[in-house]
Amino acid sequence: MRGEYSTKQKTLILNYIKENSAHLTVADIVSGLELQGVHIGKATVYRTLERLCESGEARKFIVDERSGACYQYADSGCERHFHLKCIRCGRLIHLSCDFLSGMEEHIFHDHGFKVSSGKTVIYGVCSHCSGNEDMDSHQCECHSSR
Amino acid sequence: MRGEYSTKQKTLILNYIKENSAHLTVADIVSGLELQGVHIGKATVYRTLERLCESGEARKFIVDERSGACYQYADSGCERHFHLKCIRCGRLIHLSCDFLSGMEEHIFHDHGFKVSSGKTVIYGVCSHCSGNEDMDSHQCECHSSR
DNA sequence: CTAGTTGCAAAGAGTTTGCATGGCG
DNA sequence: CGCCATGCAAACTCTTTGCAACTAG
């Protein structure tokens, strides 16, 4: 019996992340709505996003544990393919190709692990970001320091 | 002129993560050393690990923002392996196999995306838990973290 | 001796929780 | 009206920082 109400706040939050395709932190959402004259407590935003993630309407990313989790609107087709998240620009890339489907098969058959591609996010640097920056000065991977 | 001292604490921490192939949180390291009768302040552990990551002797990754970052001794191609996280029991599985290295290559060459395998965690259900496949409401007994 | 390191505790940042009030159905 | 959701603030957790004492080179 999952009686879930559809409240004003939930609608506002969902619309906000729907209209802002970039990844948003909880703070972004709170202050963004504030600019529109809407005040929603951050606890509510956390709790609402949690429910939206459970229902698959939103997706959560952890790019850097320091700056907090990011959320993004997730449309319905996202269950079947992988997501690549650029740790530079925050862009989310939907990637569905046969190779990755094969990978899923491989992991399942050879390692006994049933991959949930909808939940999995592959982190890295997108072509846009890696091309526009000089390769020597950035260590995108092995440096979590800052 | 980066004179970096080689202190007793740094050696102890490095040895500890070297001998424990598992992923360790800062708390794990502090309490693990405590059991050996060695006391090192956690601030020191954080600072030392940061330096070890910079020098490439350790690496850091984030599985779940709630439980904190994990550190691991960096050797034997650890940059090349992925982590599988069971969404049922919370177990973390190291997966290094040629297929996945191939996947990384594929994503880079065909999609222009430089994968950061250290930051990436593949979610799904491990072989231990998949005996009772029932994604929404079931929980198997192998609960570990949190 | 000098500069890097350690330890402790306090400060930060992000997230969660307790509890009373308010709103959906 | 019952139950879920909201808001606020306090509580929590992990991590960082300030500062005095300490130590490797």
Can you give a write-up of this model?
The structure is a homodimer of 146-residue chains. Chain A is an alpha+beta fold and 146 residues long. Chain A has 2 domains: 8-73, Orthogonal Bundle (Arc Repressor Mutant, subunit A), CATH 1.10.10; 78-137, 2-Layer Sandwich (Dna Ligase, domain 1), CATH 3.30.1490. Helix content of chain A is 37%, strand content 18%. Chain A has a 3-stranded antiparallel sheet with strand order 1-3-2. The longest helix of chain A is centred in the C-terminal third of the chain and has 14 residues, at 98-111. Chain A is globular, with a radius of gyration of 17 Å. Residues 132-146 of chain A have low confidence and may be disordered. The interface between A and B is large, with 40 and 45 residues.
Which properties best describe this structure?
globular, 2 domains, DNA-binding, three-stranded mixed sheet, alpha+beta, three-stranded antiparallel sheet, 146 residues, Dna Ligase, domain 1, homodimer, 7 strands, Arc Repressor Mutant, subunit A, 37% helix, 18% strand, 5 helices
